[in-house]
Amino acid sequence: MHITQLNRECLLHLFSFLDKNSRKNLAKTCHKLLEVFQDPLLWSLLNFHSPVELKKDNFLLGPALKHLSICWYSERVKVCNLEDWRKNSFQKDFCKRHENTVSDFLLDVCNRCPNLLSLTLSGCGHVTDDCILELLKNCPKLKSLKLENCVQITDHTLEAVTLHGASLRMLHVDFCRNVTQAGLERVREKCPSVMLRAERSANMIPDSKPEKKLMLEKASRKLVQL
C-alpha cells in the first residue's frame, strides 16, 4: 500500500511524529500530502529553538494552536540581554537584525491563535511589555505564561496579568531582572489563584543608566573598604 492510500486521519497521525522541516519536505511530494500539511489540526503545538526558525515557511498558524514555545539558548542570547549602553557597535548591529522577529511573530499569534493555552519564552531579549499585553488581550484562554531571561519584561507585564489574565493559572518570570518585588506582590494580591514563580528576578539588579550603575558600584566598593 502506498502512503497516499491511507485516509486523512492516519496521515495526520503519521505527520504528528515528524518535525517541522520533515513535514514540509514530505508535503512537497504530492498534492494530497500538502493538504495534510496545511490541515490546522496538525498544528496544535509549536516549538522553536531560535528566532531564525520563525522565518521558515514550515508551519501553520491558526485557531488550532494551543501550545507555543520559543526557547533560545544560544550564546548570542547574552548579547541581546545586555543593556544597550553596554553593547559595542558589532553587538548592536547583530541585535538590530532580528530585534522585531519574535515580537512580530507574537503579533501574528495574537491575530490568528485565539485559543492559545500556554506560551513559553526563554532568552527572548527583545520581547516587550506591550507585546505581552496584546497577547493577553487577544488570547483570553491563556492558562500558562512562562517568561525566562526576557530582559525587557517589567512590572507592566505583571500589571497586564492582573487586568487581562482572567484565565491564567501559572506565571513564571524567572531571571527577568526588571521585575520588582512590589510588582510580584501585586500579582499575588490581585490574582491569588495564579501559581507565581520568579526565580532570580526581583532580587537581581535592574537595568539603569550608566551613571546610576557607576554610583552603585562606587557605593559597593566603599562598603567593602569599611
TrEMBL record:
Residues 9-46 form the F-box domain. Keywords: Ubl conjugation pathway. The keyword S-adenosyl-L-methionine does not apply. InterPro entries: F-box-like_dom_sf, F-box_dom, F-box_LRR-repeat, FBXL15_LRR, Leu-rich_rpt_Cys-con_subtyp, LRR_dom_sf. Residues 95-186 form the F-box/LRR-repeat protein 15-like leucin rich repeat domain. It comes from the Eukaryota. One of its GO terms (cellular component) is cytoplasm. It holds the Pfam family DUF7885. The keyword rRNA-binding does not apply. CDD domains: F-box_FBXL22 (cd22129). This is FXL22 protein.
